[in-house]
What we know:
Elements: H1 4-27, H2 56-59, E1 85-87, H3 89-98, E2 102-105, H4 109-114, E3 116-117, E4 121-122, H5 125-128, H6 132-138, E5 145-148, H7 156-166, E6 172-175, H8 178-184, E7 189-190
Parallel strand pairs: 1-6, 2-4, 2-5, 5-6
Antiparallel strand pairs: 3-7
Amino acid sequence: MLSHDTLRRAFVIVLVGIALGIGFNLASPRKVPWKAVKKQVASLEEAAPPTAGVPEAEAATPEALPPGHDPGDAYADITESEFPREVSLEKAKELYDRGGLLVLDVREETEYAMGHIKGAAHAPHDEKVGDVEWLDSTAARAAPYLVYCDGGDCELSLNLGFALCESGHRRVLILKEGYAAWEEAGYPTSTGDLP
């Protein structure tokens, strides 16, 4: 049977551990929330385009573009947001066809090798969400990201999308239907370990 002294020491160790955990969380730039929050995102298609209500002749002028967007930016119509936004399969294909979109597949390595969107980089969720250096480096890239997983109930792409936004990236899109819908639609795919 444990002595009173042993129980007291164990209790103190637990309290010190809790205090250190809380202190670290408060000091950390990437705080862990105190309670779970269901991540919800708006749809890109539901957001008003930056030139909505502007006559077509004026829409092409640099003044009509959102602040901070280069007039030569093929994705100037994707406004910046502090949260990722869902995009439909059709809209994702339209954006993909413009070229220069950074596509990230967050599924497991075996799933990626069996088939992925052509040109997609493999960015496994478990490795990238916690990789602060990689996340911080993404904010310097001007091109928007399209992140996907299996679609449906899969939240891996959503989690990575939020992590990208927290690191400073402001044009992150989530393919809500996922890879299966992309493949079923007959859009460009590739197999193997390379994009």
